[in-house]
Amino acid sequence: QKEVEQNSGPLSVPEGAIASLNCTYSDRGSQSFFWYRQYSGKSPELIMSIYSNGDKEDGRFTAQLNKASQYVSLLIRDSQPSDSATYLCAANTGGFKTIFGAGTRLFVKA
Amino acid sequence: DTEVTQTPKHLVMGMTNKKSLKCEQHMGHRAMYWYKQKAKKPPELMFVYSYEKLSINESVPSRFSPECPNSSLLNLHLHALQPEDSALYLCASSQGTVTNEKLFFGSGTQLSVL
């Protein structure tokens, strides 16, 4: 069974701090990794994608991938209350099959 | 246009009803998906259409019947559902190049089966 594992949280950080979200995956053949943000009652929204080892930065977000450790992370700098949401880690396991982790709930306290 | 549009937003149906969920995208994407999401759980893949052909069926019960009339439209026909089928049904699309497929989700249909 191919899996994506995340700590469900909640992760609580003060406004302005760095939020660090982590994810591991079981299928070594996975090539593409994604972070989706899902507000309560809404649908997932893609915020980051990463395909090769290392860091990828986009504004306040940095995604990190370590394929040897099968580990993906998302850093959110200068966290804002509007960042409070569930963050879903996802891995494409081949073709059109993308599987999601259970998500980490993030609370940013003002 | 970067939206995936789903209708209806909410649906309540009895176990003997037949209903359909609809999804439309105008981004030129060639892959379209149905996911099911229960509360506080991750989205679970149900079906994938690639170039209007069914590419993936994740062993979904036959009471769910997908249809892809053309590259912009995706339907999910529902018949004789069970209360445990109550969930958020999400449509998504992607470019269809197979590699590095980024999913764009619609706002979902919240389905309640009585």
Supply database-style keywords.
heterodimer; A: 110 residues; mainly beta; six-stranded mixed sheet; five-stranded antiparallel sheet; 11 strands; 0% helix; 58% strand; globular; B: 114 residues; seven-stranded mixed sheet; four-stranded antiparallel sheet
Described by strand count, sense and barrel closure, the largest sheet of chain B is: 7 strands, mixed
Shape of chain A: globular
Largest interface: A-B, 24 and 26 residues
Which class best fits the helix and strand makeup of chain B?
Answer: mainly beta
Number of helical regions of chain A: 0
Strand content of chain B: over 45%
| Mean of pLDDT of chain A | 95
> Which class best fits the helix and strand makeup of chain A?
mainly beta
Compute the CA-based radius of gyration of chain B: 13 Å
Describe how the helices and strands are arranged.
The complex is a heterodimer of chains A (110) and B (114).
Chain A: E1 4-6, E2 11-14, E3 19-25, E4 32-38, E5 45-50, E6 54-58, E7 61-66, E8 71-76, E9 85-94, E10 97-100, E11 104-109
Parallel strand pairs in A: 2-11
Antiparallel strand pairs in A: 1-3, 3-8, 4-5, 4-9, 6-7, 7-8, 9-10, 9-11
Chain B: E1 4-7, E2 10-13, E3 18-25, E4 31-37, E5 44-50, E6 53-57, E7 64-70, E8 73-79, E9 87-94, E10 104-105, E11 109-113
Parallel strand pairs in B: 2-11
Antiparallel strand pairs in B: 1-3, 3-8, 4-5, 4-9, 5-6, 7-8, 9-10, 9-11
